[in-house]
Amino acid sequence: MNAHLLAAALSLLPVKRHHEAQAIVDVLERNAHTIDPYTLLAWGWRESRWDARAVGKHGERGVLQVGQRALIDLRKRFTHWKGERLAQFARLDEGVAAGLDYLELMRKRLHSPSLERALKHYNSGSPDYYQHIQNLADDLRSKFGGEP
Q1: Per the structure, how many domains does the chain have?
Q2: By the number of CB atoms within 10 A of the CB, which of 21, 79, 86, 97 ranks highest?
Q3: What are the distances in angstroms from CA 100 to CA 40, 78, 122?
Q4: What is the pLDDT of residues 55-88, one digit of tens each?
Q5: Is the pLDDT of residue 147 over 80?
Q6: CATH code of 13's domain
Q7: Is 74 within 8 Å of 102 (Cβ atoms)?
Q8: What region, left, alpha or beta, does residue 67 occupy, with left being phi > 0 and alpha being psi -120 to 50 degrees?
Q9: Which domain, by its residues, includes 79?
Q10: Which residues contact 12 (CB under 8 A, 6 or more apart)?
Q11: pTM greater than 0.70
Q12: Helix/strand/coil (H, E, C) string of 85-124?
């Protein structure tokens, strides 16, 4: 267990949700080979406040707010998403996995490994989206430790 990540997760969550922090850290650690854990922590916070049951204003679901159009793209490109429904993303692991797979699609579509470009495209081109996520990730990293 990464005590730094646990402290960072606890700092974001309201006290009544502290019991969820370890599950979040487990997801962060399982996906550390794909994305910096502090960036993923900040991204999940920005999208849904790490609420796996969150539903966005356009029907997006899960921690990383995957929408119907994204799900259609995931089904076309990844066999493991065939037959899945948006409701499945109400589970912590599935919601994060779908968001990360969709982020990878954005990188391929843009022909760029740039996380900044992919996240901007993920959020319909919002110019400040990546910077807000990165600022929070940097702030959490500086307060609680960890490598950039």
Answers
A1: 1
A2: 97
A3: 9, 12, 10
A4: 999 999 999 999 999 999 999 999 999 888 888 8
A5: no
A6: 1.10.530.10
A7: yes
A8: beta
A9: 3-144
A10: 41, 45, 49, 50, 140
A11: yes
A12: CHHHHHCHHHHHHHHHHHHHHHHHHHCCCCHHHHHHHHCC
